[in-house]
Write a structure and sequence with these properties.
The structure holds 2 protein chains of 2 kinds. In chain A, 70% of the residues lie in helices and 0% in strands. By secondary structure, chain A is mainly alpha-helical. The longest helix of chain A has 38 residues. Chain A is flat. Chain B is α/β, with parallel strands linked by helices. Chain B is 33% helix and 23% strand. Chain B contains 11 helices and 12 strands. In chain B, the strands form 2 sheets. Chain B has an 8-stranded mixed β-sheet with strand order 6-7-8-3-9-10-12-11, sandwiched between helices. Chain B has a 4-stranded antiparallel β-sheet with strand order 2-1-4-5. In chain B, helix 4 packs across helix 5. The longest helix of chain B is centred in the middle third of the chain and has 18 residues. Chain B is globular and about 70 Å long. Chain B starts with 5 loop residues before the first strand and ends in a 7-residue tail after the last strand. The chains are: A mainly alpha, B alpha/beta. Chains A and B meet through helix 8 and helix 9 of A and helix 2, helix 3 and helix 5 of B.
């Protein structure tokens, strides 16, 4: 039945319509051509929380760098007549038990805390990428040995060797950085390894191999660059955890020696005044909290922004 | 007739899947002794159900998987153990088109960088400008616009991506290309486009193809000869029209009877051979003929030894039914 019907249709030229020019543009892509980072930035901007986080962090960093330079208050010398003052116009956050301006001390502490956070995260990143990259790419026995070493490091409580490092090398910034990095690179290494292992079986890295690309070319141009998104995201999560770690050590009293201060040691110092001047504890803690929150928002935003498949 | 461009002799690719300190060693015989050869400018189709080892064969040819045993001759030279300059030359001559156009292009590289990469690796052309021009040329050959050069792969459709992959392959002017199911991830309408493109390129550049697929009608269309694989073994090789008109091996017969016919009348009259049972595990394949557990015409003989490869006309069949001795 159906067959007969189609045969009955009479064809004549009037039934046909000429294709318009739009057909010529069938292969055209309307989306504007952008570089990778311009594209990522335009996606990042759409995430309002991440943008707020970034603004906060930038202001915090700039304040920590510049305000202590121009302020008339010093971070280590107090006014003995102005101890434990409540917040006022002269002392924005009040003064501590030695009469030092808390606002300036918070900003000084921020210098230490933020640099510890960023530098420790950067060291963990460098070590983790190299270690995990090699383990994941070479695979086999090398991978087995390297990852068992990571397991071993994991099985020792972090605090134990951080304290040991601080005891042996002294309580200064360098030993603090070493201690925190040593305890946080393993997570990064594991993550990079897992990324590399999945990516190296993907067809694009096989294609590069078949094209004759060298091992280093495949590792850098194809594998690491494609794991960069998740890695950057976890770095933004490493920064707050390093800041937190430093604060914990400071609070335990094994961090920096006074009069040097970080947010952790500031909170620790203020703890003794908790009943008479609770606000003194509040300031460093709120500084830590807001910075952590900002970094987490940024990390979240970057996660979406760095994936080119998300529009 | 001229010499074959590629000859495979008794190729075996086995994988060890378990076997550490505490587990028993297990070996998957993905490819277990196959031989065939491909002539210059010929398209050799390799068909079989998933898991039969056809992709592994293709991957062994481009040296992704190292053969356990056997030899692969390219232009008369065994390439299973080549290194250095010889390997570099081999990489230029033998290329591969991958199955999944979504996974085979690096998402972080622009189309221009992807197609230029083979030229960068092999230092073809001196200046960047010359390479760039060649990239534009290649884009036009595969039917894309030269101004797509700064785009990222995710901005393209599946068919367009596969054409980008083809352009990358062509950048080295290869003599032999392994096409590993290049159309199975595409829409039917796009499949024809890509197949036609591959055929045009073959005509123009005189490339030989090993065309791996499970879509029988497509393979018949593009191939001069086809080989049918079952569980790591090649069961039948012949001219594609011959094999289609008169399949000899019981497995080929079953496989062909499963091809749908777009005409209900003929389809009703056609007898379908339905295979009993499951595909045996390649870890523990049946003794003798690997197909005997599902073969409608299996005899006791089939369990005792591997069937010889017999020449019937200009065809090769690995089955006792055609063995006259």
């Amino acid at each position: 039945m159906e067959e007969n019907k189609t045969n009955e249709i009479q064809l004549n030229p009037e039934l046909f319509e000429k294709l318009d020019d739009s057909e010529k543009n069938a292969e055209k892509i309307a989306y504007e051509s952008k570089t990778y980072f311009a594209d990522a930035w335009s996606r990042f901007k759409q995430n309002k929380l991440a943008l707020v986080g970034l603004t906060f962090l930038v202001i915090m960093i700039l304040a920590c760098i510049f305000i202590p330079m121009i302020s008339s208050y010093s971070f280590d010398e107090g006014d003995k007549l102005a101890k434990n003052l409540a917040p006022s116009m002269a002392h924005f956050m009040g003064t501590d038990k030695f009469g030092r301006d808390i606002f300036i001390r918070i900003l000084y502490g921020g210098r230490i805390s933020l640099s510890v956070g960023f530098i420790a995260a950067f060291i963990s990143l460098a070590v983790g990428v190299v270690y995990g990259g090699i383990a994941g790419y070479v695979g086999g026995k090398v991978d087995m040995l390297m990852m068992r070493f990571v397991d071993m490091m994991y099985s020792i409580p972090d605090l134990l060797y951080v304290i040991m490092i601080l005891v042996v090398l002294g309580s200064n910034l360098t030993s603090l950085l070493i201690g925190i990095s040593v305890s946080s690179w393993m997570g990064m290494a594991r993550q990079v390894r897992a990324q590399i292992m999945t990516l190296k079986e993907q067809e694009f890295s096989l294609a590069a191999y078949v094209l004759g690309a060298s091992r280093t070319r495949i590792l850098f141009k194809h594998l690491l660059i494609n794991s960069m998104g998740p890695i950057i995201v976890s770095v933004t999560m490493l920064v707050p955890s390093a800041i937190f770690y430093e604060a914990v050590l400071g609070y335990l009293g094994i961090g920096l020696a006074p009069p040097q201060a970080s947010w952790g040691t500031l909170a620790n110092d203020a703890r003794r005044m908790l009943s008479s001047a609770p606000l003194q504890t509040f300031w460093p803690i709120i500084a830590i909290c807001l910075t952590m929150l900002a970094l987490n928002f940024i990390g979240d935003g970057l996660g979406d922004a760095l994936d080119p498949k998300k529009k | 007739m001229s010499d074959p461009i590629l000859t495979i002799e008794n190729l075996k690719v086995h994988f060890q899947i378990a076997g550490g300190l505490f587990t028993k060693k297990q070996i998957v015989k993905a490819v277990d002794g196959i031989s065939f050869s491909i002539m210059p400018k010929e398209t050799f189709g390799l068909v079989g159900e998933s898991g039969c080892g056809k992709s592994t064969t293709g991957r062994a040819i481009v040296k992704i998987n190292q053969p356990t045993d056997g030899k692969i001759f390219f232009e008369g030279r065994d390439i299973t153990k080549i290194k250095g300059a010889e390997l570099r030359q081999f990489r230029k001559d033998v290329q591969m088109i991958f199955q999944d156009p979504y996974a085979s292009l690096n998402p972080r590289m622009t189309v221009g960088e992807i197609i230029r990469e083979p030229m960068d690796i092999h230092n073809i052309f001196k200046t960047k400008q010359e390479r760039e021009n060649r990239v534009r040329e290649l884009l036009e050959i595969v039917g894309l616009k030269p101004d797509h050069i700064r785009r990222y792969p995710h901005e393209f459709s599946g068919g367009q991506r596969q054409r980008i992959g083809i352009a990358r392959t062509l950048a080295l002017n290869p003599k032999f290309v392994v096409c590993d199911e290049p159309i199975s991830a595409l829409d039917v309408s796009i499949q024809a486009q890509v197949i036609n493109l591959l055929e045009d390129i073959q005509e123009e550049m005189g490339i030989s193809y090993l065309f791996i697929a499970h879509d029988l009608s497509m393979v018949k269309h593009i191939s001069d000869r086809i080989g049918v694989m079952y569980l790591g073994n090649l069961v039948e090789v012949g001219e594609s029209d011959d094999v289609y008109r008169r399949p000899l091996h019981p497995y080929t017969q079953a496989l062909l009877s499963s091809v749908p016919i777009p005409d209900p009348k003929t389809a009703r009259e056609k007898k379908r051979i339905v295979l009993e049972g499951e595909l045996p595990s390649p870890i523990d394949p049946p003794s003798g003929c690997v197909f005997r557990t599902r073969c409608p015409s299996a005899t006791e003989k089939c369990a005792q030894s591997k069937p010889p490869t017999v020449k019937v006309g200009n065809r090769l069949v690995a089955c006792f039914l055609y063995d006259e001795n």
